[in-house]
Design goal:
binds flavin-adenine dinucleotide; alpha+beta; 11 helices
Length: 447
Amino acid sequence: MLARMHPTPSHDAIVVGTGPGGATVARALARRGLRVLVLEQGSAAPIEGTVRQMAGMAAIPGKGMFIHRDASLLVQGITAGGSSALNFATAAPPPSAMFARHGIDLARQLAALQAELPIAPLPDRLIGPMATRIGDAARAAGFDWQKLDKMIRPQTCRAGCWRCVYGCPFGAKWTARDFLDQAMEHGARLLDRAKALRVIVEDGRATGVEYVRGGRTETARAAIVVLAGGGIGSPRLLHASGLRAARSSFFSDPVIAVMGTVDDVEGGAEVPMAAGVRFDGDGISLADLTLPGPMYQAFAAQAGRVDRLLAHRRTLSIMVKIRDEIGGAVGPHWASKPLHANDRVRLNEGVAMARAILRRAGATHVFSSHHFAAHPGGSVRIGDGVDSHLQAGAAGLYVCDASVIPEAWGLPPTLTLLCLGERLGEHLVATPAAVGNASIKRYNAKK
Ligand SMILES: Cc1cc2nc3c(=O)[nH]c(=O)nc-3n(C[C@H](O)[C@H](O)[C@H](O)COP(=O)(O)OP(=O)(O)OC[C@H]3O[C@@H](n4cnc5c(N)ncnc54)[C@H](O)[C@@H]3O)c2cc1C
């Protein structure tokens, strides 16, 4: 029987999505001489740091923002760099015991990234008055409140600036756009506003991606396809490709902001999550969370506290984040994540701690936001949807983003995803299955 002829691939690898997972794999492969095509449904227009642009990236109903029946929000960034363009830049190393349970050791990748990236606590001059007041109160109340590692270049970061939450236009915050730029310097080709529709699978092997751009449906071919569409995007793409059921359970790391007013602080413009405390065993973490005025007002309005709408510059805010149970579902056109009874217990416990800190800080008019979430993940888990090399469903097909996180989480995911992206890049050029690829052969021959 004649072997079926496939069109000659125009690229060695296609990466779908440019968040921390996708940008890292794209860079790792491009650096090793592979011809990489990157598809991103969002825009690669420069970051302006405005509420208007941020809303366009994160408040698109059904895409960047999901509203649940209980009025809670799930938010993600639809733009070059994914959610990292909007995130709070807090860095936490991957939990080594969790990954060891799945046969994965990320220590080498972590050490290399820590040496390369700006990861450190903020210097005191960048800790705002609200974070300082909260930290002092937390320590006085007996909490082990410590500065958190941030992915921020302190020499470029401006004290008294709030823009990082809308996207830092000054280049002070590390985002996955940094790695995407480096991938392109090494020859990767980025198509933004290009939405992948499905992976093309022939004879059990991924051979390309069908995508739509500018109203036209196109096909790109490659022997390696990496899905990095994030915790919601990747399970949807697998489903659209006939490789996964319509519904995937997930985690989202729900957050409640607990807020209270003080008379003697004027602030409201500072880097959020400068310091905090983690109770890993309980799955609860707390941090200062000073947000720009319009975001604060949205929380106050949602909580029905119109009396606090004008109190932004005097209101201290503490983030309570929990490790939620894996549940709910990412569906083809929606995502739903009701709180489990255990989640409510954890949130209540965290809110009680935040209230105690605010009381110690002398705050009055204390109130809590509805819960919201920004870490959708665990929807294509290692050991379930992908193997320990992140391969999914077909030869040559991989997933590398928050969806592969193997267990309930509750941590800042970005640094872990960078480690996984580096590891996958290394694996793809080293693995015999991928060595059929001419560029990888050339790279390995040169070593
Ligand atoms: C407000 C906020 C604050 C946060 N703070 C922190 C923090 O302090 N520290 C931390 O570590 N993490 C934080 N996070 C979370 C962190 O940014 C995310 O976990 C991380 O970005 C997820 O990376 P990812 O690789 O899974 O992909 P994502 O960042 O989700 O990016 C996926 C990309 O794929 C694209 N895509 C999806 N589907 C398709 C398709 N079909 N075709 C083409 N493109 C597609 C999307 O447009 C998107 O750009 C925060 C997130 C938010 C929203």
